[in-house]
Design brief:
mainly alpha; Arc Repressor Mutant, subunit A; 22 helices; 6 strands
């Protein structure tokens, strides 16, 4: 046997432990990532949890690892790595989510107000609610918003302020308040008159600093009241809601949305659900101490490197999720505003091209991730739709059309599959009779003959 050397060029993927960790973070759902971060906080003393008022975690160094993390796109699909994942096909896990009221508190409140308020006033209320954060407070100065709303809606600024006051003292007291003081005063105004309420109002007007310092004696002296009266007033204040909007109690589906989308000022805004995850960072004093002692504490330096990769990996995951969701929401505005029949054909490749990443990355970041919208909460995968051959609509939209036609058919004359295909053809959607039958079966709707024997039994 003759031996020899032969040069050969080729590409291989070096899966470093850090890269594998980053890939795993990319695939984790919100509950899984929360568990991962809490375990990391317990395991690594160099990590600490940020408070709500802290600045976002430091993302320095992300670009330095761009080439290595780009290897995400060359790896197999998530199910190859973790043993599970999206199975494709027509099976939609979100179809098993119970339908209910909107997950957006603004939509719930507007639906309640629509029973009593006139459309003109309701439009102004909608403007104010769009300017509120998730807690129900205004995000910008009220005076500036009045001027903007007046120009945008073509109404008087004073009339717009009257509507804000109606919201402030209405069904959900404190909504559209400028701060916590105004929110609490609005709630107090709706309580029955008593000495405690009067003193509580004076505390909120002039004694917030003493209240924060728990100085009951000084409060009593400043308000010319007894200490017991001040305590009763403080107890009344503490019984009020700290925020205008209370957190929605989770339903039995136990779905935690990763991203939230809401419509405001004519645009769709997308943000991460910060309530779902603890925010972690490297403790500044630990980082400073290690930088001042070069060449020492090898074990601690290993923990520091681990902490940096975790913080960096979470930041990359969140950024990728946010960019992907923004594209999905922009492409599917019709679905979010009008429903299933308006969902547009959209593929992984189209979204990947829009964000400059590989299809596999988009697949990983959308698998098991949920989006909260005014239309409800559902998996990001639902925003993808297969394009029907020779048509500008997707299979999901056509399936919704088939359901609508059957739901509105005459009870004594159910529509046959070929008749439904003909009706869709007149709307510009050409599909075969067998395709109608397939969609009908997926919707668990019996044939026309069976529906004639038992009218509405299957579609009720």
């Amino acid at each position: 046997m003759k031996t020899g050397l032969r040069p050969q060029l080729g590409q291989t993927l070096n899966l470093t432990p850090q890269l594998l960790q980053t890939i795993r973070l990319l695939q984790l759902t919100a509950p899984q990532l929360e568990q991962e971060l809490r375990q990391a906080l317990e395991r690594n003393p160099l990590l600490e949890q940020e408070d709500a008022g802290d600045e976002a975690a430091d993302h320095d160094g992300t670009e330095a690892h761009a080439l290595e993390t780009a290897a995400w796109d060359e790896l197999p699909e998530p199910m190859f790595l973790s043993g599970g994942g999206y199975s494709g096909g027509d099976d939609d896990a979100t179809a098993r989510i119970a339908a209910g009221e909107s997950s957006d508190w603004r939509q719930r409140l507007l639906a309640l107000l629509a029973l009593q308020w006139r459309p003109h006033t309701l439009a102004m209320a909608s403007f104010w609610l769009d300017q509120c954060d998730e807690r129900g407070y205004l995000e910008t100065d009220a005076h500036a918003l009045r001027q903007r709303g007046s120009a945008q809606l073509g109404v008087d600024a004073d009339e717009l302020e009257v509507v804000r006051q109606r919201l402030l003292h209405g069904e959900w007291p404190g909504v559209a308040a400028t701060d916590a003081g105004e929110c609490l005063r609005a709630q107090l105004a709706l309580l029955p008159g008593c000495d405690a309420r009067d003193i509580a109002r004076r505390i909120l007007a002039d004694g917030l600093e003493r209240l924060a310092a728990h100085d009951e004696v000084e409060l009593a002296r400043a308000l010319d009241a007894t200490t017991d009266e001040v305590r009763d007033a403080i107890a009344l204040i503490l019984s009020l809601r700290p925020h205008p909007v209370e957190a929605v109690v989770a339903d039995t589906t136990s779905i935690v949305p990763d991203v939230v989308a809401r419509h405001a000022d004519g645009h769709w805004r997308v943000s991460l659900n910060e309530r779902a995850l603890p925010r972690v960072r490297i403790a500044p004093h630990c980082e400073q101490a290690l930088s001042d002692a070069p060449g020492q504490h090898a074990a601690l330096r290993g923990l520091m490197e681990e902490a940096r990769w975790l913080v960096r990996g979470v930041a990359m995951r969140n950024e990728t999720l946010l960019r992907t969701t923004q594209v999905l929401v922009e492409r599917q505005q019709g679905f979010l505003e009008r429903g299933e029949e308006a969902i547009a054909p959209l593929t992984l490749k189209e979204v990947a091209e829009a964000i400059g990443m590989h299809e596999s990355t988009v697949s990983r970041i959308t698998t098991g991730k949920y989006l909260q919208t005014p239309r409800g909460t559902f998996e990001l995968k639902r925003l993808f739709a297969v394009r029907l051959e020779g048509a500008n609509v997707g299979a999901t939209a056509v399936k919704a059309m088939v359901k609508r036609l059957i739901d509105t058919e005459p009870a004594n004359a159910p529509l046959a599959d070929d008749v439904i295909a003909g009706m869709l053809a007149r709307q510009g959607v050409r599909i075969a009779r067998r395709t109608v039958a397939k969609y009908r079966d997926q919707l668990a709707i019996p044939s026309a003959m069976a529906r004639r024997a038992q009218p509405r039994a299957a579609t009720a």
